[in-house]
Design a protein that fits this description.
Elements lengths: L2 E7 L8 H14 L2 E6 L19 E8 L3 H6 L5 H4 L4 E6 L5
Antiparallel strand pairs: 1-3, 1-4, 2-3
C-alpha cells in the first residue's frame, strides 16, 4: 500500500484541543495504515555551499499513513484537528523505497 504524509500548517482559525487529537489518532489507528507522526519544533536550514533557504515556519506537524491512493489519503484528513479548525493539511505521496 502506498505511503503518504500529511503536513499540518499553522493557519488554524482556532487552536485544536488535545481531545481532538486523541480522537483523530484513535480513528486513524482503527482504520489502519497509521504509521506515526509528530509535531515539528523550531530549527535551522543548512546548506554545504551558499546561503541556505529559510525554515518553513508554516509547517507544524506531520502524520505518515498508508492509503490505497491519493483519494483514500485525502479522505483520512476528515477529523484532523488542523483541518477541522479551519487550517491547511497538505497530502503528499511518498515515493516507494524512500523510508
Amino acid at each position: 500500500m502506498p505511503d503518504f504524509i500529511l503536513l499540518m500548517h499553522n493557519d488554524t482559525a482556532r487552536e485544536p484541543s488535545a481531545g481532538m487529537w486523541d480522537s483523530y489518532f484513535t480513528s486513524l489507528r482503527q482504520r489502519g495504515g497509521f504509521s506515526g507522526g509528530s509535531s515539528i519544533g523550531s530549527g535551522e536550514t543548512v546548506r554545504k555551499d551558499g546561503p541556505a533557504g529559510t525554515v518553513a515556519d508554516h509547517l507544524v506537524g506531520y502524520i505518515r499513513i498508508e492509503a490505497n491512493d491519493l483519494a483514500d489519503a485525502k479522505s483520512r484528513v476528515a477529523g484532523n484537528p488542523v483541518y477541522e479548525c479551519g487550517g491547511t493539511v497538505e497530502v503528499r505521496s511518498l515515493p516507494p523505497g524512500e523510508d
